[in-house]
Each structure stands twice: as C-alpha cells, then as structure tokens.
Design brief:
With about 220 residues, the protein is α+β, with helices and mostly antiparallel strands. It has five helices and 13 strands. It has one domain: SOS response associated peptidase-like (hypothetical protein yedk fold, Alpha-Beta Complex). The chain starts with a strand and ends in a 21-residue tail after the last strand.
C-alpha cells in the first residue's frame, strides 16, 4: 500500500533534465491522494497529473479516492485499470514513501527509501477523464495510480504491501513506458517485490497531519 509519499531533493537532483518541470510542483514532503504529482509518460515525457485514477468511462470522479493504488496481481484484468495497463503506463517520481504502524490513536510513520540517496521509481498507470457526459470538463483531467506488490523482505515488518518499484537507471523503465510493447506477461513480471535493500526510518508525528508539507516531515522521531 502507498497512501503518502515524497518527491523532493533526491528526485530533482537525479532527474537533472526535469529540474525546471519539477520546480513547478515541489518539493513536496507529504504527498496525499488527489495531489498533483510528477510522472513520466511514453518517451519519458513529463506530466503533472492528479493522484487517484479516474477511468475514462467513469460517470463521476468518486473513484479517485479508491483507485490511488492498483494491485499488481489484478492490474491487467480489473476494469478500472486494464485499459491503462495496455496503453497508458507511466512511472511516478518519488524520493520515498511512508507507512504507518501502531494503534489508531498513536500511529507512527516510517519513511522508506533507497539507502544510497537515489530516488525511487514507482510503476504506475495514467488515464484521461473528460468528465460526466451531461457536464463535460473544459479540459480533460489526467490522473494516475501507483501499482503495489508484496513487500520486500527488508520492510515487510512494517507493512505487507509496497509500491512496485525499480532503480531509476533500469532499462525496464523505457519498456514499461512504451505503449507499442504488448507482451503483457513480461510487463507483469516487472511488478515484483524490490530485490535490493531498502531503509526505513521512524518519523515524528508531524507527518501524520497531511497539511504539513515541509522538510520537517522527514525529521526522525525522538527516542
């Protein structure tokens, strides 16, 4: 599961050619569903879209709060995602993401990220929604979902799900983004738990409030 994440310095420093584009959006240290986020489409074209996928055939925008994640084991078949999986795949740019543990009244955030300071690359999907038939939007709304899979062994004690991700320099990125590539079984084979090491750091309760967006979100919890 991924319900909150970060795109900040690691994303900007790595994707040098996108710095101008990224500066218009961030950095953001507590990204929540319905936020505008940076993705790469086919040909590594950058785009700013809303997190929470609305299928093109949807009658309203209510699916956005349900379809922010897409399970890897059903993404090719589930009606909300299967059209995007075939032709509108994307990658979602991120520094890392949060997961929470503990009882409801004492939730503790854990920030999960690469150990070497590089950004993360989440496999995702995007869609274009023109609005209800009886009240079409002036401009189509582009939205996205992050694909999730089983957690990597290094973080499964935090949560049993995680974003399906890869290294930012992996050649599989261009294959994933290519709408002409139709070996869907091969694409599904990319959506597996990350094999490398991941780090998790407990953070302060400041990040629990989605209105808090500054770098203070990444301050470590007090012992």
């Amino acid at each position: 599961m991924c319900g909150r994440y970060v795109f900040g310095p690691a994303t900007r420093d790595y994707w040098v050619e996108l710095q101008g584009f990224l500066d218009t959006l961030g950095p953001r240290y507590n990204v929540a569903v319905t936020s505008t986020v940076p993705i790469l489409k086919a040909g590594r074209e950058p785009a700013a879209v809303r997190w929470g996928l609305i299928p093109s055939w949807s009658k309203d925008n209510s699916s956005a709060v349900r379809c922010f994640n897409a399970r890897a084991d059903s993404v090719a078949d589930k009606p909300s995602f299967r059209a995007a999986f075939k032709k509108r795949r994307c990658i979602v740019l991120a520094d890392g993401y949060y997961e929470w543990t503990g009882p409801k009244n004492d939730k503790r955030a854990h920030y999960i990220h690469m150990p070497d300071g590089r950004p993360m690359v989440f496999y995702g999907l995007w869609e274009s929604w023109s609005g209800p038939k009886d009240a079409p939007l002036a401009e189509p709304l582009e939205t996205c979902a992050i694909i999730t899979t089983d957690a990597a062994p290094s973080i499964e004690h935090i949560h049993n799900r995680m974003p399906a991700l890869t290294d930012p320099d992996d050649e599989a990125i261009d294959l994933w983004l290519d709408p002409a590539f139709e070996d869907y079984k091969h694409l599904e084979s990319l959506l597996v738990p990350y094999e490398g090491e991941l780090l998790e750091e407990p953070k302060s309760k400041y990040v629990n409030n989605v209105r808090n967006q500054g770098p203070e979100c990444l301050e470590n919890a007090e012992e």
